[in-house]
Specification:
Largest sheet: 6 strands, parallel
Number of helices: 10
Order of helices and strands: HEHHHHHHEHEEEEHEEEH
Distance between the termini: 5 Å
Mean pLDDT: 88
């Protein structure tokens, strides 16, 4: 085993509570599209609005399908998602804090997941406000609609009305902060630091920080260990012990 991989394994063996922080990198590599590729960066705010969805429900669903749903439900979780779920099952990983909305950690089998940008598991009817806590509503081949009034559903984290998106994201971030504050080892995987200012200050001084990322990021200077390699390779070595 490479020296830095062995060092990570030693950290994990010695850790009582390891938390992984994941970002878009582990999803984009396996088919997820960046939102601006699907709608254009300037159009994102307009498309993810209740008024647009009411006027263009089928267009909205096609955008969602292109940007997220095919990669989530057709291609499914990546090797990294599955490896993290395996580490949790083995008791080597306490939980995951992720900026990703795609629910791929849950689909892969992870149980303790904090989604601090919201996710497709938390949805709201844009007409009556009914909430649906189930990502499966997006896997029916059509725009999900409310059982109560027939109105279109959208992820709560996108909904600007009545502060719903703020509530959805605050709930996820609060859970993520609690997990990270309790950790004695934090793994940074596939993120360059989106919203990191909200959780970095909660990491205890004695907590080890390990970054697994092929490219430099804002975490480089603060990490106890930077591993410049593909996460799938690194986690495979940790799981297999070689």
């Amino acid at each position: 085993m490479k020296e830095e991989y062995q060092k990570l394994k030693d950290y994990m063996d010695q850790s009582g509570k390891t938390v992984a922080v994941t970002g878009a990198g582990i999803s984009y590599l396996y088919g997820m599209r960046r939102l601006k590729q699907s709608v254009g960066l300037m159009n994102a705010g307009r498309v993810f609005s209740a008024s647009y969805i009411r006027k263009n429900p089928e267009k909205f669903y096609k955008i969602m399908k292109d940007a997220f749903l095919d990669a989530t439900f057709v291609k499914g979780p990546s090797v990294v998602h599955k490896q993290l779920a395996q580490l949790e099952e083995q008791g080597k990983l306490y939980g995951i804090a992720t900026q990703n909305l795609d629910c791929l950690h849950t689909i892969a089998g992870s149980k303790n997941v904090a989604e601090f940008q919201g996710s497709f598991r938390d949805n709201v009817c844009i007409d009556c406000g009914e909430r649906y806590h189930d990502y499966h509503v997006w896997n029916e081949g059509k725009l999900p609609r409310c059982d109560k009034c027939g109105g279109p559903l959208m992820p709560a984290s996108f909904c600007q009305e009545k502060g719903i998106n703020r509530e959805a994201m605050q709930t996820g971030m609060q859970k993520a902060i609690r997990m990270i504050a309790e950790a004695d080892l934090v793994l940074i995987i596939g993120t360059t630091g989106f919203r990191s200012e909200e959780y970095l200050s909660r990491i205890r001084p004695e907590t080890k920080l390990v970054q697994i990322n092929p490219s430099p990021t804002a975490f480089d200077s603060m990490a106890d260990l930077n591993i410049r390699a593909d996460a799938a390779e690194v986690l495979a070595a940790v799981l297999n012990g070689n």
